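Chapter review. Work through the record for Alpha-1,3-glucosyltransferase before attempting the end-of-chapter questions.
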Amino acid sequence: LQYVFVGPLHLVHIQVLTILLCTVISKLKDIGWKLLYIHTNRNDLMYWGLDYPPLTAYHSFLFGKLAQYFNVSWVELYKSRGFEGTDLKLFMRFTVLISDVLVFFTSCYAYSKSLPSHMHLLFLFILLYPGNILIDHGHFQFNCVSLGLYIWTCTLLHWNYDIAAAVFFVFSLSFKQMELYHAPAIFCYLLGKCLYSPLKKGLIKFFSLAFVVCFTFGLTWYPFITDIEQFGAVISRIFPFNRGLYEDKVANIWCSLSVFIKWKEIVSIQNMVCICAACTLICILPGCITLLTNPTVENFNRCSLMSSLSFFLFSYHVHEKSILIPAVYEFHVLPVTILQQIFIVRLC
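Structure tokens for Alpha-1,3-glucosyltransferase:
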């Protein structure tokens, strides 16, 4: 219990998320939840189809029900397509603000409180980061939720609440698959702490972490793992290899080199996936080994930044908004003086 009950605010977050999950899952059974990731006449995946993990689906479902309460035409099947009313835009902006306040703001505040007093300015820097504001409040993709859940993870790890941190990271990963960028650092840090603890304590922590991770994944993914075909549909949607090496114009290695080497023409998708995986693994391996053998908070911060940047630069099917993951995490690593300069330059 000492690993789970980490204080009123953190406990409230876990309880609320669990209650919402159970409520939404029970409701989804009544609306054909098995079709959320399958293309049908009533679920046209070509028109902004769901291509994120289940927690995003639950989040969208809750706000969809709220929108239905205010104005049915906002979410009416087929007829709502292309609707751009002022009241709907206002509602959409409020959905981002609500998500920001409940998840992102609280996580940033908690993280800033875990730092020395002279570093509290980080709270303001993270909240006012232009990239996050422009994307979330203009494109409504709610990256603030997955990023906020991950910042909660980092905060809890800094406070040595590893079990609670594992719960929040599973939620983060179940909201946006891009959080896989941070998974190697999380895995190596927690495994390293288990390995370098006394045998009995290390085994207890290892099996506790394994149980909590499996249980949280099982709870979050429950509607979609009871059917193999349905689970396969989910995986194919959240890992769309057929979409290509990268999305539009992305400042990563493959897009930059495509000026000289036409990857899509000379390398098959299967081979390109293997090449990307190998390059990414080579880049993150030194940081992961260092973290595994010396699991300190400083090494964790460095490895997280290295891992997220490596995935952005070398992994397969990189979207331009993926840069938010290493960009936001740089606030945890760089000194405030450097952050001030970066922030001013980007704002200009």
